[in-house]
Fold:
Amino acid sequence: MKTLLISGLLALLATTAGAQGNFYIETCVLNCTSGAHGNQVFCGVTNVFRNGQISWMWSDTIDLYSVTPASLQIFDALTGQSVIGAYTLQDAGRRLVFTPATFQHGHLYSLLIPGREQGDLGPFVMSTSGVPNLSRLDCTIVTSLGDLDIGADCVVSSNSVGVGALMSFAGSSSISQNDLAIEILGLPVGQPALFVVSDSPSSLPFGDGVLCLGQPVRRIQPLIGTGTGSVSLNVNVNALPPGLIAAPGQLTWFQLWYRDPKGGPQGFNLSNSLRVVWRP
Structure:
């Protein structure tokens, strides 16, 4: 009996020690200070692209289910309205990436991640081993336009699987590099979809979403399937639809149309948009 009690006590102590371990932000794309040793985290970069993804590298793997609007707060500093977006993990689960859907140009946004060491009550971003974030992050950023700008002219609409179809990109707007790649996440599985493009913006109700492209709207490739909930497009600047030219300073808007029979009454929706300012 004594042996069992000692074993149980040791197990309890081990669990408690694990729950009090170090799980903190090491760095981020905003040039964050380190949260090691209980230090509050500050940002060295405050002026960001409106389309820019924000990411944080933690000291251990992140429990994505613990990432909520309360444990990771991003909101308009003037109105208090939360920013809609999607979270994904990279770098073996240690990097958390936020892709915004509703950043507005020239707005101030507050970023607040509660920390245990600062006496915050939580909820906290947690590690996969159950350790809460150690140190609070408290930053303010201001958004500015970029050559590649997601959600520049209208916002995404929710769909049957979540906050909506969210666009991301890789590469650049360089004509000579010709390396722009677009990906859309958050789509209903196994539905037809179509990339469309225009040389002007709009913001008009269409289907169960918002059409972000001005007329004329052109399709950029044949109908494709959403597979497991995502689609991608490698943009070829030398093969844009007739009437569109990738020339330095020229603007082009991209968007995705897709079927969503379990969504709203119209049965189809659209992603947010990507505005491209072409460079040499």
The chain has one helix and 20 strands.
